[in-house]
Hints:
Layout: E1 3-11, E2 16-23, E3 27-32, H1 36-46, E4 55-58, E5 61-62, H2 67-72, E6 73-77, H3 88-99, H4 105-114, E7 121-123, E8 127-129, H5 131-145, E9 149-153, H6 161-171, E10 179-185, E11 196-200, E12 206-209, E13 214-219, E14 227-229, E15 234-237, H7 243-251, E16 256-260
Parallel strand pairs: 3-10, 3-11, 6-9, 9-10
Antiparallel strand pairs: 1-2, 1-4, 4-5, 7-8, 11-12, 13-15, 13-16, 14-15
Helix pairs in contact: 4-5
Amino acid sequence: MSLEFKHVLIKGRLNNYKLNVDINDKIIIGVFSNDEKAINDFFLKASGVNTNEGNIFFRGYSVFDNKEYFKNRLLINYKQPYITSLDKSYLQKYFKENYNIDIDLNIFEKINKDLKLRNEYLIKDKYIFTKRGLNLVNYSLTKCICKKINFIYNVISNCSKEEREIILLGLADKENFDVNFLDFNDVLVSSKFIDKYLFFSNSGEIVFLTNDDDVYLVGGEILNSLIYNKTKDISITNYEYTKEEIKAFKKRKIILKKIKFIDVERYL
């Protein structure tokens, strides 16, 4: 159930990007950028909500306004409240009437129990979830709706590291999911459960990396960075520095360290 991107224009706040790639089945892709607009434009075009300059194909047909595609994909924001109750009959009726979706309530209940979701809401006239609770309940919905292709905004916002790994493990379930695009915005995350990392870089390029690829940590904000961490004042780049350039960094006492991408979180 692959997706084909042919000369697709992705519009960001500062840069526009051209995407040409075939995304094959059974893959989880983390999406990163300092430009939130670029990620949003990519998600809305790739999910078939917005028209696109270029073409995105699913089973040989454009994804835009494609009913068959919509049956197979989910677009969800883990910061967004979608439900106001955990009552099973309410959930079943709500998703059937509003989205024509059948959900597996057994999966939903099991995940909620494992993640102790019932500690994460207040009951007034309706359920009001905490920020953490929103993230966890929407992960539960993703699992029990179980679409083959998923576009997930803010996938680990407000989660502990332990909860993050539970979520990423669950979304890496390749028996039930074919392609998952996970939006991390500018929060740099590396995980053994993520197969590829898609960057809408600050230099205007689209870059794919794997956990085994080499990157440089660079002190300060640089023009050719994949992403810049303002809190730590560190840039990440896949640019291959020459020996002379490395010497120049050392002379100026600027941080420059070559690492595997899987290890990037140790330094941020």
